[in-house]
Amino acid sequence: MFHFIQTPLDWLMIIEAQVYWDERGFFMETYNKWDFDNVWINCNFVQDNHSKSKAWVLRGLHFQTKNTQSKLVRVIAWSVYDVALDLRKNSPTFWKWFWVVLNSENKKQLFVPTWFAHWFLTLTDDTEFVYKCDNFYNPESEGWIMWNDEELNINWKDFFDSEKIIISEKDKKNMSLNDFRIINPF
Q: Is residue 62 flagged as an active site residue?
C-alpha cells in the first residue's frame, strides 16, 4: 500500500510506502504497477540504476531531450537532498523547483516525470541512491543545467557549505538556464 502525495509541481509526486517492522527488521513494497497505474503513474520501467557516493557529492541537474526518462528515485542507505525542476515552457510551474530529503529512515520515494530536470546532493558518506527509469539512457540526448544558476534562486547556504561540494568535471560544464531556454524541447 502506498500514500501518493502531490507536490506543488504538477505530476511530481512523493510516494510513501507502507513499512512493516518487527524484531527481524522491516519489509516494504517499493513498487507495484497496479497501485502506480491507479494514480496515473503508468510507466513501463526498463532500467534500474544504483550509485554510491561520498558526502557532499552533487549529481545533476540532468535530463534527456530525446528518449526522455521518468524516474522513480529513492535512497537505500543514508541521505540525499533531492531536487526536481520543471522544464515545461507552458507550465504554470515552469522554472519552479521542489526539494525533498530522501533517506533510508523515511523511505520516501520521488516520482520525477520526463519533463523535469533532476539532481541530488548526498548528505552522508556511503549514500546509496537507486532509481527506475522508463526509458534507456541515451548519452547523445543528455542535457545538463548548472545546479547553482542564480536564476534558480536556491539558497544553498541553508543546506550546506558550497565549498564542500564534490562535482564531476562534466557537471562543472553544465549550461545556464538562459542557454537552456534556446534549446528547450519541453
A: yes
